């Protein structure tokens, strides 16, 4: 059975292109991903970045879902410290009501931004117990519809009426999200996220595309501690997705040239700088060791082979790809050509 391939997008902006064009490029990538047979199109929450336009992921995913018909769309992920579980349930429950059986909700513990911006966003803690409590609330909000034990004051206020406090709701409901049973994923880049995913019985998406160092340890924790009897359990056995950065072109030389944009972005972020993606540079990028998920560069055949080895090495159930190219058309072609080769090889 072929291991599913998915895409993680952050709607990156490129030098010389507008932010609106970056968002339009993201939509076109979602459409191309569907046509190429990708399993999911996820978007990651980032705030205050002049590189990534994916701050309001629910809005962008709604747009992507409206202009596609079969591909699953979802967050990769919603950063729980930034949001109340009720609001997340309302947003993603609305998406799931509009686009049934197509919406995923990946959840993370990081703020997805710098400390100053995080302070403006934060509503809760990121400790494991806080996150676990929020996940439990989310699952209950998405659960089966219960008969209400009162009326909503907001309903009455629409008609200019007031309601006796004795007749108001005594339970909190996420409408229209209740009953949608949106699938939850736990995201992580350490053993902490793996522990939460295991204790809650959730599928786990590991951020190996930027933090592979602790991957083996995290997956060991996840698989060894996985609880099928957890109240929040959604899968019957440990289920792992992992991220891989790629750059694919007809020749390895061309792929290495295009990958200089990715390396320039890494250098910017490493030194605290930010800005749109830069055009490729003439200096060559030295490829990372083979099978390193932080950046696999080459022809469709060589990249597919290396990802296949990565899948086998970690017994992965799914791979989610990112690609940073200055030209959005090159990003699209990179991912689509890899999907064709992946399917051809039956990996």
* Rounded Rg: 21 Å
Largest sheet: 8 strands, parallel, barrel
Please bin the fraction of helical residues: 40-55%
* Coarse morphology: globular
- From the N-terminal CA to the C-terminal CA, the straight-line distance is 8 Å
Mean pLDDT: 89
H/I helix tally: 12
Structural class: alpha/beta
Biggest β-sheet: strands ordered side by side in the sheet? 1-2-3-4-5-6-7-9
Order of helices and strands: EHEHEHEHHHEHEHEHHEHEH
Strand content: 5-15%
Structure write-up:
To bacterial alkanal monooxygenase alpha and beta chains. The chain has 347 residues and is an alpha/beta fold. The protein has a domain of 95 residues. The chain is 41% helix and 14% strand. It has 12 helices and 9 strands. Strands 1-2-3-4-5-6-7-9 form an 8-stranded parallel beta barrel, surrounded by 9 helices. Helix 2 links the parallel strand 2 and strand 3. Helix 7 packs parallel to helix 8.
Question: How would you describe this structure in keywords?
Answer:
alpha/beta, 14% strand, eight-stranded parallel β-barrel, 347 residues, Luciferase-like_sf, Luciferase-like_dom, 12 helices, 41% helix
Outline of this structure?
It holds the Pfam family Bac_luciferase. With 347 residues, the chain is of the alpha/beta class. 41% of the residues lie in helices and 14% in strands.
Protein topology:
Blueprint: E1 5-9, H1 19-36, E2 40-43, H2 57-66, E3 72-79, H3 85-98, E4 103-108, H4 115-121, H5 128-141, H6 153-158, E5 184-188, H7 191-200, E6 204-206, H8 215-225, E7 240-248, H9 252-258, H10 260-270, E8 296-298, H11 300-314, E9 318-322, H12 328-345
Helix pairs in contact: 1-12, 3-5, 5-7, 7-8, 11-12
